[in-house]
Amino acid sequence: MSGPADGGSQPGAPGGDPSSYPIAQRIPAEVLDAEADRLAALARAPAHRRIGGYARLAGPGFMGAALTLGAGTLTSSMLSGATFGYRTLWLIWLACGLGLFMMAAMARFTCKGGFRVIQVQNRRHSWLIGSLLTALVGTAAVAVIFNFGQVALGTHLIESLAPFAGFSFPAEYNWVLYVGVTSWLILSYGRRGGTGTRLVEAVMKGAIALMIVAFGAVLVVVGVDWGAAARGAFVPWLPGGGEGLDLFIASSAAAVGVMDWVFFHYAGLGRGWGRNHESLARFDLFAGLFIPFVVVNFLVIGVFAATLFPQGITPESAPELAAALMPLLGPTWSQVLFYVGFLAVPITTTVAMSLAGAMAIHEAFGWEPDTASWRWKLSALLPQIAFLAAWNARPVWLVIFIAAFLSLANNVVGWSMYLLLNDRKVLGADRSKSYLWNLGILLQVTLLNAIAITYVFNRLGWW
Amino acid sequence: MRAGGVLHRFLERRIGPWSGRVWGLIVNLAGNAMALWGVASVMRTGDGWIWIVIGGVATAICISALALPAGRGDPDA
């Protein structure tokens, strides 16, 4: 770990040039210059114009929301709603809000640091923490393993939607459609002078809007107990005993993790973000990541709290939950809308995870990311091996191995990020000078520690 | 003010292989483990509150201290 003696090296020096990231180099200089001019004008504009302008320029935060709002998060929210009603709504905003402190650190590394964080970790904290734990375990391996869950859910949803159109389209065949659409989006990123990146970002924004409209409309159909929802959102409640502590730790620390940190940082570099972009990056985190994450989870918990919870129905998997919900939704259009909104969840997560994985693999091995190269394409499409999930094939032993490694590694990566943010040799005058910022990061690090500790206690039979 | 200066110097000084901040993170991890060990003991046997208190206090102290940003008075500033 860093100490005064291990010297800051030049490439990690403060104030690097973010536009030197190869994906950003594909964006024409005049486009980057025009964006810088626009940002300068927005900084002087009234608040309402600034917000509108930032919303158009934002992107990596929405991509982060698309990454985080995956099959696992949504299944967890569905289960929470079905099991506990509205009572765990408060965990959603708390969990994501706590994660914003670390995400703001990533924005600082991108905009003011201008360096590639995994390379700096390698130099300051060893390749074990940078290349291995952050890039390969925390991001690339997770992208491959977690994509099995996305493909399984996505193909199941396509199969469930097809009968509404009057035909059958089983998962064993529709995986070709799922993998084809997601691969096209994955390979569009970073292409055609930056327009490919903007296309992917636009799809992510549209998909999140679709989720909100779909789940919102379904919630209107099933009705909301506003009193219970307000209490659930602002009055903390947990089930008793170990179950409550498990739920709190898992929800609080899992909303935003290593992959989200890495992806937001590198997606910002890929957009050519520099010193003038930090306000935009923070806006993007709030409006693009926090708000969509909270709203979508609120809506999903609300739908299941209003339907399955009163009947005491608690299926265990996302397909079972969705199937149990259908008879309670009433009109056919609301069932279709729910499935369509739900389908946007795994699709966007597959795309974002694959990009995060490709960026991480390139950083781990010191390769320059060239989105036109076969190396990039293979790295980015690696998670698509999860098409096997269409036949219910899951590498269980690998999931257990990665989950174990991840539980024990996440907190160490969190330590590393906290140390970099406070490292004068890395950020110079741009290091953290805020007690509150450090405090928020340390609370998240402590929750990540708790996950690692409870994992070990579980293995030893103590928990 | 003086205590803050001492703490700042401790956090940024190299002590053995690592800086004070790294040692603080390690002590915080130990505090977290103690508190959770206490919770596990209370759930199993009803005893172990002392571990929750010690671990909780250690965690609170570590987090409060480590949240201090690196200041101008640090070594090598």
The coarse overall form of chain B would be elongated
The N- to C-terminal Cα distance of chain B equals 18 Å
Poorly predicted regions of chain B: none
CATH architecture annotation of chain A = Orthogonal Bundle
Oligomer: heterodimer
Q: CATH topology of chain A, what is it called?
A: Hydantoin permease
Beta-strand percentage range of chain A: under 5%
**Radius of gyration of chain A from CA coordinates:** 22 Å
Kindly report the spatial arrangement of strands forming the biggest sheet of chain B.
Answer: 1-2
How many domains comprise the coordinates of chain A?
Answer: 1
Kindly state the number of beta strands of chain A: 0
Biggest β-sheet of chain A, characterized?
A: none
Backbone CA Rg of chain B: 15 Å
| Helix fraction of chain A by DSSP (H/I, runs of at least 4) | over 70%
Structural category of chain B:
mainly alpha
Q: Flag low-confidence runs of chain A.
A: 1-14
Biggest sheet architecture of chain B? 2 strands, antiparallel
Structural class of chain A: mainly alpha
What is the domain tally of chain B? Answer: 1
The largest inter-chain interface, given as chain pair and residues per side, is:
A-B, 35 and 30 residues
| % residues in beta strands of chain B | 5-15%
